[in-house]
Design brief:
The protein is of the alpha/beta class. Helix content is about 35%, strand content about 20%.
Length: about 375
């Protein structure tokens, strides 16, 4: 499990949340679970994470019981991953009570798209907000302005350049990249050539997911060659075109890694059109319904899923308990690590996997 250091001691995500829960009588228990550290290339990959669990009891609203107005602000709003985050936030709000959560999304991928949306939401005088930055650099100043306006802030999924707000809640993407490498190397027999398609060069998600992948490969599977990474900006059409061209230019490709759901879906299109489904090992990040269907059909060997539902759920728990005075802000670490789970054909239908499958609609 990922961990965070507080005042000289290491606290896991689960331990953090348990400390939050115990701070007030009857507070909602929150999702837990994270993957173990990848093992060497020769070992059989494991790494399935414990699943998040539902809230255990009705939380107390005795600390004023005021209605809290919260919101989520993000780009790429059609991503199933972010819809799952919203579902987690809504479920937490319903369990805790007296909380509204507004979804504020744009299909855009830049601060120019996101900042006006954030400014508009702030004009509604919310109590707190969860923000997924479209760009850590370009969103740093707007995030600081949220705090300066007295609005409680949790940053999710994509880490800011500098800590801001109550906490950053997100996965260990480097660990996720290592998991992808471990599973792909095993499927390739620890030899061959890998083609990687990613999001935008230099973004934290790219650096971590691709960096973790390459670092693990170099250390544990040195006989696997990695072609130069290509970037599709999470556009499926671009990813399909790039992957098709790579398969034609490099018939030696024996492994594929897609860094995010939209990129992977485009790559999968190229794989199907080339007639190599199930013939070239393929591991991808995320787990939307399209990816899960393709996993069951044999397109993917594994999907690396992060706990977006967990992130939304716990962000609301943290915001609500701070705003209601049930925990001190000083008790919250700068980073709250969310879980990762490796989905395969063997475990994707397990009950423990369901909260790691991204849904576009909430229950």
């Amino acid at each position: 499990m990922g961990s965070t250091r507080i005042s000289g001691r290491v606290v896991t995500a689960a331990a953090l949340i348990m400390s939050i829960v115990s701070a007030c009588s009857g507070a909602a228990a929150t999702p837990t679970g994270a993957a173990a550290t990848p093992t060497g290339a020769a070992a059989t990959p494991t790494g399935a994470a414990a699943t998040p669990t539902g809230a255990a009891s009705s939380p107390s609203t005795s600390s004023g019981g005021q209605v809290l107005h919260l919101g989520i602000v993000l780009g790429l709003d059609t991503n199933a991953s972010y819809q799952s985050m919203f579902c987690g936030a809504k479920d937490a709000a319903a369990k805790i009570g007296n909380i509204t959560v507004a979804f504020n999304g744009t299909p855009g991928t830049s601060p120019a798209d996101e900042v006006p949306l954030l400014d508009s939401f702030l004009q509604t005088k919310p109590d707190g907000v969860i923000v997924v930055p479209t760009d850590p650099n370009g969103m740093q100043a707007p995030l600081q302005q949220v705090v300066q306006q007295g609005v409680k802030l949790v940053v999710a999924d994509i880490a800011p350049l500098k800590p801001v707000g109550l906490t950053f809640i997100g996965p260990d993407n480097t660990l996720g990249g290592a998991y992808a490498a471990q599973y792909l190397a095993a499927a390739m027999g620890n030899k061959g050539t890998v083609y990687i398609n990613s999001y935008i060069p230099g973004t934290s998600v790219d650096v971590q997911r691709v960096g973790g992948f390459k670092t693990w490969m170099a250390a544990n599977a040195p006989d696997i060659k990695m072609l130069p990474t290509e970037y599709s900006k999470a556009d499926p059409t671009t990813a399909a075109t790039q992957t098709a061209a790579a398969l034609r230019a490099h018939p030696e490709i024996t492994g594929l890694y897609g860094q995010n759901e939209l990129t992977a879906n485009g790559m999968a299109t190229a794989v199907r059109e080339a007639g190599v489904t199930g013939k070239i090992p393929f591991v991808a990040y995320d787990a939307d319904q399209v990816e899960v269907t393709a996993l069951k059909a044999g397109t993917y060997n594994a999907l690396i899923s992060q706990g977006f539902y967990w992130e939304g759920y716990n962000a609301v728990v943290i915001l609500s308990q701070v705003l209601r005075g049930q925990i001190p802000e000083a008790s919250i670490p700068a980073n709250t690590v969310s879980p990762i789970k490796v989905l395969t054909k063997d475990n994707v239908d397990d009950p423990s996997s369901q909260q790691f499958i991204y849904n576009t609609s909430c229950n």
